[in-house]
Design a protein that fits this description.
Layout lengths: L2 E4 L10 H9 L2 H12 L5 H10 L6 H9 L7 H10 L3 E9 H11 L3 E10 L2 E7 L7 H13 L6 E5 L5 H6 L2 E5 L3 H4 L4 E3 L8 H9 L1
Parallel strand pairs: 1-2, 1-5, 2-3, 5-6, 6-7
Antiparallel strand pairs: 3-4
Length: 212
């Protein structure tokens, strides 16, 4: 059994969840700058994540949920996931983003396994703290290892799809990796790259790989 593991932000969705939440909280420009540097590998990922989430403190959960519910799918996302399933693959999303978005996206696309962080709340507002096991640059690799072990799948039988520096360790551990509109730092570790905002472009790459 083969598994395809997707990133969420700027991969399965055409947005960065934390940047959209920050815009709703009135700190969009500041957070977007940190996000860009973190995805380029210029900052310690864990510190950058915690700093960005801290700036969301005070945002109402109602506003946060409404923002998360409005995030758009990346063009071709549904077609790609459906094609993967037709090829007999299991699907997973491992994201350093947040369950308020990941749960909905996973349901919309029919993803088999969804792993994400959570945003801590208190009395209807975000506390500015992030909880979960995906808070460091190598966290995705650990979650990937745990998932494949639980599913009885060899990591070398997995395809990883992502765009940012926090996907490097995932790419190193998967049998095959595809960089999607990725930062230059990630492309160095990819077996294939797609440089257009349409996930359908990945379908023939996966088919060719599975035939080999």
């Amino acid at each position: 059994m083969m598994m395809i593991v997707f990133d969420m932000d700027s991969t399965l969705i055409d947005a960065e969840t934390i940047d959209e939440l920050a815009a709703a909280a009135g700190v969009g420009e500041r957070v977007s700058e940190i996000t860009e540097r973190a995805m380029n590998g210029e900052l310690d990922y864990g510190e950058a994540l915690r700093e960005r989430v801290s700036l969301l403190k005070g945002l109402s959960t109602e506003r946060a949920n409404a923002t998360a519910d409005s995030l758009p799918l990346m063009p071709g996302a549904k077609e790609l996931v459906d094609a993967a399933k037709h090829m007999g693959c299991q699907t997973a999303m491992i994201t350093c983003g947040f369950m308020i978005a990941a749960r909905r996206i996973g349901d919309l696309l029919g993803i088999d396994y969804v792993i994400a962080n959570d945003l801590a709340t208190d009395n209807g507002t975000l506390t500015g703290e992030v909880t979960g096991k995906l808070t460091e640059c190598d966290s995705k690799a650990h979650m990937f290892e745990d998932l494949t072990r639980r599913c009885g799948i060899d990591p070398q039988e997995c395809i990883a799809v992502g765009d940012g520096a926090n996907d490097i360790y995932l790419f190193k551990n998967a049998g095959y990796s595809i960089a999607f509109n990725a930062k230059p730092v990630l492309k160095e570790y990819a077996d294939a790259s797609v440089n257009q905002k349409d996930l359908r472009a990945i379908i023939p790459i996966i088919r060719a790989y599975m035939r080999d």
